[in-house]
Design goal:
Length: 157
């Protein structure tokens, strides 16, 4: 399982900022203003992807080898595709330097936490605030301030 193509590895783009708070990853796509919650298996998959672990290896690291099923692999690939659509990860390019962590920290495993398909929770309620440009959207009234746009609502007859 160590002979994987570069396309089986993903990276977190620089347009994404994330942190772990109490076992939950909160990731913000700075281009869209959407923020995401990754808990449980979703958190573990994201941590392993960030550590440059190939997707097939992700599955084997999340379950004992005797418990790995095709459904688990499909769930991890579907979840990774969802991360790509959300802009939280992208496929690594051939020859791209990857940040490899030989022992990424995983959540509790085993009987304490059985396999559950990973879920990406997406929130868009703060999109306008997240997309404010604190460097360029500053005026005499203070920071941050969204630029107000005058909309002409008159109708020409």
């Amino acid at each position: 399982m160590n002979n994987h193509a570069e396309t089986d590895r993903y990276v977190v783009p620089t347009s994404v900022t994330w942190d772990e708070i109490g076992g939950e990853i909160v990731a913000i796509n700075l281009l869209t203003g959407h923020y995401h919650s990754l808990r449980g298996t979703a958190r573990d998959v994201f941590v392993l992807i960030h550590a440059a672990v190939a997707l097939d290896e992700v599955v084997t690291m999340l379950a004992s080898p005797t418990d790995v099923t095709a459904e688990m692999g499909e769930a991890v690939r579907d979840f990774t595709a969802e991360l790509v659509r959300a802009g939280l990860v992208r496929a690594a390019e051939v020859g791209e330097a990857l940040s490899h962590d030989p022992s990424p920290p995983l959540g509790e495993r085993g009987a304490a936490r059985p396999w559950v398909a990973p879920v990406l929770e997406t929130y868009t309620d703060l999109e306008d605030l997240m997309l404010l440009d604190p460097v360029h959207d500053v005026d005499a009234q203070g920071w941050p301030r969204a630029v107000e746009v005058d909309v002409d609502t008159s109708v020409d007859a």
